[in-house]
Structure formats: C-alpha cells, structure tokens
C-alpha cells in the first residue's frame, strides 16, 4: 500500500470539531505530515460574537501551528471553513457548501461532540447522536468518499468490565428514543434520565454508545472506522511535548492540585487511570483513515495512573502547597474535604471580608467538588479493553509511517510525559512564564513557613487548653513520654549489646 502521507496527497478532508482540542491537533498533523493534502473543510459555527472565519483564523494563530507555519507560511489556504450548526436540521450547511462537500470530500473525521458529563439528555442526544445521523446522511451522498472515521470513547460501554472491539446492542433503539423525547418537556426528560441511562454514569457515555450504534447501521453503505480513545491528555511528542489548551479531564485536576486547592480526592488507588496523549490518538486516527478504505476498525487506547510534579515546577500564586490525599473511603474523604478544603476556604474568605474584598474561595471549592464528583465513577473503577485491531493496524504500517504516525504507547516514558503535561498546563493553559519559577518556589516556601507556624501555634493552643488545665491529661501525657523514653533507652541498650 502507499504510505499514509502519500494516501492523503490530493485528498479533500472534512473535519467536524476542528476548533476543539483533538480537532486542532488533527488539523495540524495533517497539514504538517501530509503536505500533499488538497483541502481541509472544517465545520464551524459562529460563537461569542466571532464569525466562523475569525474563529478559524484565531485557531491557526495558536502556538500549536508554529512548526507547520515555519515549513509552509501559506498553510492556512488549505483550511476551508464551512458554516454549520450541529443542533440545526441538515447541520445548517448551505446548499452551495453542501454541493461542494458532496462533490469533492474523500475522508470524513467526525470529532465533534459534547463532552460535558452533566449535559441534559436532550442536548447530549442532539449533539452526539442526531448530529452524527445527519453527518452520515451527508456522507452517503458524497461521490468520492473513501472513509468515515468516527471518534467515540472507550467509556461508551463502561457498564461492562471487559470491553471487546465490537458494537454492543444499544440500551434503546436511537430512533425510538429520539421520537419519544421530541414531545417531552425538559422537566419530564430530566425525571426519566436516570432510568434511561441505567448503569452508565452520565448522559455523555450513554449518548456515545447510541452514536456508535447509529454509525454501525451505515456500515454496509460506507467504509467506517470507530476510534475509542480513553482520557485524552496533553501531547507526548508532537508538535512539541506537553501541549494542552483546556481545563478538561486531568488538566483541571492537575492545575487544582498544583495551585494547592485540591488536597483530597476519592479514588481507587489500585485502579488504572486510562490516560492517553492526544498526538497518539491523532496518529492512530489518521492511520485508521488510511486503512479504512478496505476494512472496518474499532479501536481503543488506555494507559497508566497519573502523578503530579508541580512541586518542582510550581504554579504562580498557589493557594497552598501542592499535596494530595487519595482515598477510596467515603468517610475519610469527607474528613479531608472538611479539614483541607472547606476550613481553609472559610478562613480565607473571612480574611477577604475583613480586608474589604469579596469572598470567593468557598465558591471555587464548591465548583471543584462538583467537577470532582463527576469524575469519581471513572477514578474508582477499572476496565479491560481488547486492542487486537490496533495491534493489527500497527503491523500494516511501514517503518517510516511507524515513526511519523507513531501510536505505540509502549515507547512512552510516563514520568517524563507527566512532567511535560504539568509544565504544559502552566505554559499553555495558564499562560505562565517559566522564568517566574524561582519566584513561585519562593512563594511555596512562604506557604510552608506559614503552615509550620500555624501547626506550632495549634499545638501550643491544644497544650494550654487540654493538657495544662487538666491533671488527668497531664498524667496521660507524662505516661506517654515516659513510655517513649523507655523505648529509646531499650533501643540504645540493644544497639550497644549488638555492637
């Protein structure tokens, strides 16, 4: 077969979700490593007062595109924005644009979706299922379509412990659910949502499972691949290590921990955190698009637990020193929330009130607790995924393609990756200057001294209140000290005899 870069040469590609995290990396990788690609049509909607042209222009000014900008200053000419709205009939694509897409598109990458875990069911269904149906309808009209690649999630079937590379029967026939919800008001839908999603934790995983079923229903008419990435994190190698542009998933947790705000989290220490670098997912996606002209693939990616490295690379103006307590026990977690989250937040808000400022720390912690509670289902459980198709796909790549489109996570150095990830959140999400690290370290030392002073004062207070005023407490204290002294004396005597 032709190499992956040669395959995409002269091809026209349609991408949904191009302005999102994965979509940007996909666009950049195609432009940089497949320079012969003819055109990238990206579905974009106007947002926050910006036209689609402005959004795409701002996206391509991002640091992510620095490497491709150096190699081809005119790379932006290959990116063609198409006005679209996923919540509207026909995706709100104009007849002229639709005719253009039908005539020339060769590959479709469907990355767009709502990834909010607490999205109302109706809206999640519209974005993740109905929009997928309409895009498939458009794809079936394309005269030269060779592959339709759908980005799903490894957690679409998280109600199972072992997940194979198959499309499982949907919890409900998508068309029946869509028809039923049409006449219901939001209150009725909200009331029946828990019963509909069943053992799944949220509307996101539920609607992604339905979307897979919708895609499978067209597999006899189109060459289709389904990619199932797990938790997508910062880049591993490309276009440079540690690139990230959002607070989603582990990024928000890392930043909260690095700022010293998140001090406790309920999770299973024995469970595997299935984190995967975004560039690995994109490399696999492009390889699957190359191969899908003849065979259907269903793939997933999974990997290891994550540890923070912010003590070596501290964030600016941290609230407290980074420290995290991970426990699976509900009561212990609630205790640490009270001691490490709510009590310090109340004290800080009291200080703000006394100094004439508006209190805000308790509000931050309430939002943090809500976000963390949405992740508890995934941080407290473990899954096993079959990945035979991914291994087989890797076997079909040439040695050169294995380097250029590498998705073999066995080569990944995880401690180095996590450090780059943390530095990436500092540089690209918070826009903090690396030259300010010495000042940030000094700030952490200041916080450490404050903590030592507070603990000392607390010990003195406890001594005065509970020990100095009570004869019984003093007797217990002296008894404990006496036992410790006798133990040390015995230890020294034993060491002397041994010598």
From TrEMBL:
UniProt keyword annotation of Transcription regulation present: no
UniProt subcellular location: Peroxisome membrane
Main location: membrane
Entry's Gene Ontology molecular function annotations: alcohol-forming long-chain fatty acyl-CoA reductase activity; alcohol-forming very long-chain fatty acyl-CoA reductase activity
EC numbers for this chain: 1.2.1.84
Membrane-spanning parts: 452-470, 476-493
Membrane topology: Single-pass membrane protein
Annotated catalysed reactions: (9Z)-octadecenoyl-CoA + 2 NADPH + 2 H(+) = (9Z)-octadecen-1-ol + 2 NADP(+) + CoA; (9Z,12Z)-octadecadienoyl-CoA + 2 NADPH + 2 H(+) = (9Z,12Z)-octadecadien-1-ol + 2 NADP(+) + CoA; hexadecanoyl-CoA + 2 NADPH + 2 H(+) = hexadecan-1-ol + 2 NADP(+) + CoA; 16-methylheptadecanoyl-CoA + 2 NADPH + 2 H(+) = 16-methylheptadecan-1-ol + 2 NADP(+) + CoA
GO terms under biological process: lipid biosynthetic process; long-chain fatty-acyl-CoA metabolic process
InterPro entries found in the cross-reference section: FAR, FAR_C, FAR_NAD-bd, NAD(P)-bd_dom_sf
Function: Catalyzes the reduction of fatty acyl-CoA to fatty alcohols.
Similarity field: Belongs to the fatty acyl-CoA reductase family.
Name this protein carries in UniProt: Fatty acyl-CoA reductase
Name of the coding gene: FAR2
